[in-house]
Design brief:
This is Peptidase MA-like domain-containing protein. With 348 residues, the protein is α/β, with parallel strands linked by helices. It is built from eleven helices and eight strands. It has one domain. It starts with 10 loop residues before the first strand and ends with a helix.
Length: 348
């Protein structure tokens, strides 16, 4: 198992161009493609130009590195150190780091998920690059490809997470939310929002207080399609589904995670309440299998679907089949509630 001890270099990134992004426009259209030969994901070269100036403070966290991105005109000012601290403070960065540390530990040691860098798609990635962006509002973005910047002599292949400098970890869980997206991306190519944003919003309940809001499961195809047309709001569907599969809402917290606090001494982990902690790995496994199945069926490269295909609603029936298999594996039919049975009987 790959175990990395990569330094978090708080550095200055000078942005001169733009990312290639995650539009995969070159997937193989040969319907006879054999995905068994595509064991690992690739590392793509970024169409960007960075220069780096390391600062004196470099907190440590396995598998992560932090950078600060400036617009070019910022570099015309003389006091670079001061400008960096105007983007993100040392304390702010430390709090983000601690939230990522706890979330990473929960995803692996409570949910039983495999670390993204240990999954085949990300075998060529050496770390997750957390780019801090100067912005007017708090937001985050997780990219799904392994990339390398040819002008960064220090950097190896990596995955990118972006966080705006308005993100304060002690007040929101954007870092943990974006990290969950990277866990998703490491095992499946599906990017339908009701799945990815719905379950990522659910993942916030692992750290935040309370188990999250829920609503009754769909009873008809039309109601299910409404869920599939939604995004973050689909978390209510997932939380209800998870609760009906396993009503236990408490999970055991590893001791080393329970003691981690923000710099204001508030615990990062606000409670140990969440539904679905035993089910999420089952559904990830089924979604991974279904992702491979779609690759074979469509003749697409295993880890290089076009972006529009990853988000195509036409793939929802495949996702739904994976969900139903996961439910069947987790709770016998005779133990399912009437609400759960009726939902699982919906065909797309």
């Amino acid at each position: 198992m790959k175990r990395l001890s990569t330094v978090i270099c708080l550095s200055v990134g000078i942005v001169c161009c733009q990312y290639i992004g995650s539009d995969n426009n070159n997937h193989n259209s040969n319907n006879n493609i054999d995905i068994s030969s595509q064991e690992f994901g690739e590392c793509r070269q970024l169409n960007t130009s960075f220069q780096y100036t390391s600062l004196s403070y470099q907190p440590q966290l396995d598998s992560f590195r932090f950078l600060i991105k400036f617009n070019a005109n910022k570099l015309l000012e003389t006091n670079l150190q001061r400008n960096v601290l105007n983007v993100v403070t040392v304390n702010q960065l430390q709090n983000i780091k601690r939230q990522l540390q706890v979330a990473d530990g929960i995803y692996q040691n409570v949910l039983g998920l495999t670390a993204p860098l240990d999954n085949p798609r990300y075998q060529k990635a050496h770390f997750i690059n957390v780019n801090m962006i100067e912005a007017q509002k708090a937001y985050g973005r997780a990219y799904d490809e392994v990339v390398k910047n040819k002008n960064d002599k220090v950097s190896a292949c990596h995955i990118i997470m972006e966080l705006s400098n308005q993100v304060n970890a002690e007040h929101n869980v954007t870092p943990a939310h974006e990290l969950f997206h990277i866990y998703q991306n490491s095992v499946m190519m599906f990017k339908q929002s009701w799945l990815t944003e719905g379950t990522a919003r659910w993942s916030e309940s692992l750290i935040k207080e309370s188990t999250g809001k829920e609503e009754a499961l769909p009873e008809t195809k039309e109601q299910l399609l409404e869920v599939m047309d939604s995004s973050y709001g689909a978390s209510k569907f997932w939380i209800r589904l998870f609760r009906l599969i396993d009503p236990n809402d408490a999970f055991v917290v590893p001791n080393y995670l329970d003691t981690i606090t923000y710099l204001n001494n508030e615990p990062v982990l606000q409670d140990n309440k969440a539904y679905g902690v035993t089910f999420i790995k089952v559904i990830f496994d089924e979604l991974s299998k279904e992702s491979d199945h779609v690759s074979e069926l469509k003749g697409w490269d295993r880890y290089a679907w076009k972006e529009k295909d990853q988000k195509d609603p036409a793939l929802n029936p495949y996702i739904w089949n994976a969900v139903k298999r996961a439910v069947a594996k987790s709770i016998p039919y005779e133990q399912q509630s009437e609400e759960l049975r009726k939902c699982m009987e919906i065909e797309l």
